[in-house]
Amino acid sequence: MDTLLLARLQFATTTSIHFLFVVVTLGLVTLLVGMQTAWVLTGNPKWERLTRYWGQLYVINYVLGIATGIVMEFQFGLNWSGLSRYVGNVFGAPLAIETLVAFFLESTFLGMWIFGWHRLRKGVHLALLWGVALTAYASAFWIMVANSWLQNPVGYEVRDGIAHLTDFGALLTNPSLGMAFGHVVSAALLVGGMLMAAVSAWHLIRRTPDFLLFRTSLRIGLVTAALAITLVQGFGFAQFGAVGSVQPTKFGQGPEAQALVAEWTARFGPGDYAPPVLANVGLGFMILIGLALGCVWLLLPLLFRDWIIRLRFPLWLTLLALPLPFVAVILGWIAREVGRQPWVAYGLLPTEQAVSPVGAPVMLTSLIGFSLLLGTLAVTNWVLLARHAARGAADPALGRPPAPSSEPARPEPALF
């Protein structure tokens, strides 16, 4: 079996599963910030209950998502030593910044937020959640900086067969970055909004006692999803111009693409420099799903009349639409990453030169092992999310006041 194919399958498996955790985390934390801010400003206990309920789901997804991220780092080091050796001086800079932001700042803020309930002042506790959200967005930004450099290498020079960073500012102004980052962020908001709306719809279908509470979260989720799908479509279609200018071979074989292929043939030898058909297939289905999700605007009448909310049909539509944004983000990732082939760094480093010199049996073993581990983490995550979501918002464990101690107070020992 081909080692390169196995390495690419392993990369696709680890990054796509991890990406599902990322979009849920990024989407939910934005909604949490809004709900806790409303609680601090208004003092309405409804917002506290909503923050605790959705915050508990967010924490579950975050913790297991960190585990999938660690697995992804392992497969990078094991399978793509050629990438690290050739472009590590450039590609590693934004990844190092992202690691400091995500694994130090974000996790520190989150830990203090989790254990700071009823121990910190409301304003300080809210500031911690704002810190979690801002560092989450910063983490996503630096990941996209690194990914955009692979899509369109800029600000570097090759010395002694190794790429060296010469212009850090060029990484931040990469034409492949801006619209892609906006597309990813809006897709995460779409996922978070649809998840909140779907879980709320499920509770309303079951006629749980907290009707008013889940009516509120249903409205928040639907409004977020409706606004986000508009941004997703806008940033998505706007990328065609930017991608066409920096990756002429991605979506067609025009004169620019043919000239680029001739240049590559002279530098790297003859070969197939057209991206696989899978990239365009993923792109096509992603566009169809994105257009279908635009119909979420038709569900907005649920915001205005309780009798419409009590109808099961629109609630069932909301619930059944939940998988669509998750499928769309995976298809979008396939279109972006597979469309770059046969390059790891577009026009600079062929994929076959980036893979580690590992035998096919070893690569197959790691593929099976990582896939089973990540699959277990994903299933565990969704089981825990479903279980805690089904319990309702009566008394979530997150933010629960400490129980008063039944033991009598012990006298302080005398010092003299």
TrEMBL record:
<protein>
    <submittedName>
        <fullName>Cytochrome ubiquinol oxidase subunit I</fullName>
    </submittedName>
</protein>
<keyword id="KW-0472">Membrane</keyword>
<dbReference type="InterPro" id="IPR002585">
    <property type="entry name" value="Cyt-d_ubiquinol_oxidase_su_1"/>
</dbReference>
<feature type="region of interest" description="Disordered">
    <location>
        <begin position="394"/>
        <end position="416"/>
    </location>
</feature>
<dbReference type="GO" id="GO:0019646">
    <property type="term" value="P:aerobic electron transport chain"/>
</dbReference>
<feature type="transmembrane region" description="Helical">
    <location>
        <begin position="127"/>
        <end position="150"/>
    </location>
</feature>
<keyword id="KW-0812">Transmembrane</keyword>
<feature type="transmembrane region" description="Helical">
    <location>
        <begin position="277"/>
        <end position="303"/>
    </location>
</feature>
<feature type="transmembrane region" description="Helical">
    <location>
        <begin position="180"/>
        <end position="205"/>
    </location>
</feature>
<keyword id="KW-0408">Iron</keyword>
<dbReference type="GO" id="GO:0020037">
    <property type="term" value="F:heme binding"/>
</dbReference>
<feature type="transmembrane region" description="Helical">
    <location>
        <begin position="315"/>
        <end position="335"/>
    </location>
</feature>
<feature type="transmembrane region" description="Helical">
    <location>
        <begin position="355"/>
        <end position="384"/>
    </location>
</feature>
<dbReference type="GO" id="GO:0005886">
    <property type="term" value="C:plasma membrane"/>
</dbReference>
<keyword id="KW-1003">Cell membrane</keyword>
<feature type="transmembrane region" description="Helical">
    <location>
        <begin position="217"/>
        <end position="238"/>
    </location>
</feature>
<keyword id="KW-0479">Metal-binding</keyword>
<keyword id="KW-0813">Transport</keyword>
<dbReference type="GO" id="GO:0016682">
    <property type="term" value="F:oxidoreductase activity, acting on diphenols and related substances as donors, oxygen as acceptor"/>
</dbReference>
<keyword id="KW-1133">Transmembrane helix</keyword>
<feature type="transmembrane region" description="Helical">
    <location>
        <begin position="91"/>
        <end position="115"/>
    </location>
</feature>
<comment type="similarity">
    <text>Belongs to the cytochrome ubiquinol oxidase subunit 1 family.</text>
</comment>
<dbReference type="GO" id="GO:0070069">
    <property type="term" value="C:cytochrome complex"/>
</dbReference>
<dbReference type="Pfam" id="PF01654">
    <property type="entry name" value="Cyt_bd_oxida_I"/>
</dbReference>
<feature type="transmembrane region" description="Helical">
    <location>
        <begin position="53"/>
        <end position="71"/>
    </location>
</feature>
<keyword id="KW-0249">Electron transport</keyword>
<dbReference type="GO" id="GO:0009055">
    <property type="term" value="F:electron transfer activity"/>
</dbReference>
<dbReference type="GO" id="GO:0046872">
    <property type="term" value="F:metal ion binding"/>
</dbReference>
<feature type="transmembrane region" description="Helical">
    <location>
        <begin position="20"/>
        <end position="41"/>
    </location>
</feature>
<keyword id="KW-0349">Heme</keyword>
